[in-house]
Write a structure and sequence with these properties.
The complex is a heterodimer of chains A (about 475) and B (about 200). Chain A has about 475 residues and is an alpha/beta fold. Chain A contains 17 helices and 14 strands. About 10% of the residues of chain A have low confidence. Chain B has about 200 residues and is mainly alpha-helical. Classes of the chains: A alpha/beta (about 475), B mainly alpha (about 200). At the A-B interface, α7, α10, α12, α15 and α16 of A face α2, α4, α5, α6 and α7 of B.
């Protein structure tokens, strides 16, 4: 049967036009095997699956069982018409037929030249014609037996035939097989759930753009040291810094202050100047200072600051400054400290090679301290201190610019005496003292950083750079 | 049976600490203090356990692993620092390790964040959505107001910065804090009612 390319109707093998839609079947692509239903090329003579003769009428290819006396003439497969003469008559012109034949011959020659012939599946098998089979058996073994199925009918079944030479796979067929193989071996499309499991696609900037951004940032970082002081600095500290200074200056020589170092070396540049200034002022006033930290790095920074300043080193030597030590457990540690300082630091004496701090001069209760100063770069640690503090204790916080907005509500609610932003406070304190040049450099550096961000915002919307996607 | 005992102990301890903080009872307060001190000691031992865990994990990687060199360096540095801290506490050698090894490395890592943040800003500042536009405008305004020179040149800008921090920023932060508090309460209740049992190591 021939499949109509227009309506897919299966027409008779000798039909020239579709019986359903009238479409000419000269351009048909597939021919349906009447035996197994496989689709074959229109110019194929035998079915590629079961070797049925596609040019023969359906009744001949699949003969119905008939009584012995009405059995049809045996039709050996070898004698099947292989010449185009056996093709069904089509309304093609002779020119088209010749062209098609020439193309087929060219394909076969190319296939025989480029591709090794496939092994013959019927190799080594004797032809299954009735005469040959009976000859091998030495005559008809069923002679004299009546009412048996005619042997010719069984032998004439299509799949018993030997494949003709034309069934060797050509170039196009091998291309089709390769395409089918690639489609069959292609991984199945991912479902939505599986796609969500995949890591997100990350936008990657071009390398030259990364270099430009890094150079801009380095230039801004160099501004504080190169700047002659282009921008003015505030001559008077802000309200928060003033409140902090006034609170500290009101302390007498017998006052006790607890200082918590809750920042690490990555933010030391932001907080060290203010922390040093505050500690020096307290040491000059004769205030007893007690240092602790919930992080080991905080203690290291405190020790470094104490040994790096002459006035702080003197206070350390006089026993005015004591390092209480590490307070593990963060919230639990702070809670324990709020209940009892002795419980938090079980040791009565903290000894070291450089100094010996005696806890007998340390208040046993948190209420014994006149002020608690928090130096922090971690909002969670700062919240632990503020939320675990009793209502009578109002800490004073000096934090980084990153943490500052997170603690503004605590200042507004009165849980913090004052909240100071480290970099701004450092510039204001420097500007109010003799180190004015340092303050102007820092101001210019912040302004340069703002310009860098402004340039990035403009470039991001002007440059036709689209981040590449990498997984 | 073991699970029930562990869960019962955790629930009772949590309830005692909670009641000790809420009720003005000296007896409950002392019990809560005792339990909190125990937790503090456990936290100190947790540091030691974490150290041993890191040591064991990298020892296995140093013996057989794709990045043996890094694990070996980590183990050597860890043991060396530990030995200096134990043998020479608060000495110049320990200060040297902190000042010239630990502190510069952590400061360098922090400084590298600036480059990453700038690249992230390049992506985030592309005006493709309304959110990106709001982010861009608010970031530029806040950065501009953070410059001390702006308050020196125009004192009113300082007041504008204070207002922005006190009203819109504080409102957003308050919302976050309320969410954190509610989440903490929900988690605490789940632990108190033994719905979640993180102390048993079960999922």
């Amino acid at each position: 049967m021939i499949v109509c390319p227009n309506c897919q109707h299966q027409n008779h093998v000798q039909a020239s036009h579709c019986a359903q839609c009238g479409q000419s079947l000269s351009d048909a692509v597939y021919r349906v095997c009447p035996s197994c239903g496989a689709l074959n090329p229109i110019d194929g003579q035998f079915c590629q699956r079961c070797l049925t003769d596609l040019t023969a009428p359906a009744a001949q290819a699949q003969p119905a069982p008939a009584p012995p006396d009405m059995a049809p003439e045996p039709t050996p497969i070898e004698s099947a018409p292989a010449e185009p003469a056996a093709q069904p008559a089509k309304p093609n012109t002779k020119k088209r037929e010749a062209k098609r034949k020439k193309r087929r011959d060219r394909k076969e020659r190319a296939a025989q030249r480029d591709i090794a012939p496939l092994p013959d599946p019927a190799e080594g098998r004797q032809p299954q014609s009735p005469e040959n089979g009976l000859a091998e058996l030495g005559g008809d073994p069923l002679a004299g037996v009546s009412d048996v199925l005619p042997l010719e009918t069984a032998v004439a079944l299509p799949h018993r035939g030997s494949p003709p030479a034309e069934l060797r796979s050509g170039h196009d067929e091998q291309e089709d097989a390769r395409l089918f193989s690639s489609l069959a071996s292609e991984p199945a499309p991912l479902t939505a759930a599986a796609q969500q499991v995949l890591p997100p696609v990350r936008a990657e900037l071009p390398r030259w753009l990364k270099l430009v951004l890094a150079l801009m940032l380095l230039l801004a970082a160099c501004i504080p040291t190169l700047s002659p002081g282009w921008l003015p600095t505030p001559t008077t500290p802000s309200a928060g810094t003033n409140a902090m200074l006034s609170a500290l200056s009101s302390l007498g020589s017998d006052a006790q202050v607890l200082v918590a170092y809750e920042y690490g070396p990555d933010h030391a540049a932001e907080l060290d100047p203010v922390a040093q200034r505050v500690l020096e002022q307290l040491a000059d006033q004769g205030v007893r200072i007690h240092l602790l930290s919930t992080e080991p790095s905080g203690l290291g920074l405190a020790e470094r600051m104490l040994h790096g300043s002459d006035s702080l080193q003197g206070g350390l030597d006089r026993g005015q400054i004591q390092v209480l030590g590490l307070l593990p457990g963060r919230e639990i540690g702070v809670r324990t400290l709020m209940r009892s300082v002795e419980s938090a630091f079980r040791m009565q004496t903290v000894t070291s090679e450089t100094h010996a701090a005696d806890l007998t001069h340390t208040p046993t209760r948190i209420s014994g301290f006149d002020h608690v100063i928090l130096l922090g770069d971690d909002s969670r640690a700062m919240r632990a201190w503020i939320e675990q503090a009793p209502p009578t204790l109002h800490p004073l916080a000096i934090v980084t610019a990153q943490v500052y907005p997170a603690l503004v509500p605590y200042e507004a609610s009165g849980q913090l005496v004052t909240l100071v932003q480290g970099p701004t406070a450092a510039i204001e304190l420097q500007a109010s003292t003799s180190s004015r040049i340092t303050a102007t450099g820092a101001t210019d550096g912040l302004a340069a950083l703002f310009l860098v961000v402004l340039c990035v915002a403009i470039l991001a919307n002007v440059l036709p750079v689209k981040p590449g996607k990498t997984r | 049976m073991r699970r029930i005992m562990v869960a019962a102990f955790a629930v009772i301890a949590g309830l005692l600490v909670c009641l000790g903080l809420l009720l003005p009872s000296p007896w409950l307060g002392r019990v809560a203090d005792l339990l909190l001190e125990g937790a503090l000691i456990l936290a100190a031992f947790a540091l030691l356990l974490g150290l041993l865990n890191v040591l064991r994990s990298h020892a296995q990687k140093a013996v057989k692993g794709p990045r043996r060199g890094q694990s070996i360096v980590l183990i050597v540095a860890l043991l060396l620092t530990l030995a200096i801290g134990l043998l020479f506490p608060q000495s110049a050698a320990q200060a040297w390790v902190f000042d010239y090894v630990y502190s510069p490395i952590q400061a360098s890592l922090g400084a590298l964040l600036a480059f990453v943040a700038l690249q992230a800003a390049f992506r985030a500042f592309r005006l493709r959505t309304v959110d990106a536009a709001i982010l861009l405008v608010s970031s530029l305004i806040m950065l501009f107001l953070q410059i001390p020179a702006t308050a020196a040149l125009w004192p009113r800008l300082g007041a504008v910065r204070d207002w922005m921090l006190a009203v819109p920023v504080a409102a957003g932060i308050r919302g976050l804090l309320l969410g954190i508090a509610l989440g903490t309460m929900a988690t605490a209740l789940r632990v108190l009612f033994a719905v979640d049992r993180p102390y048993t190591g079960e999922e």
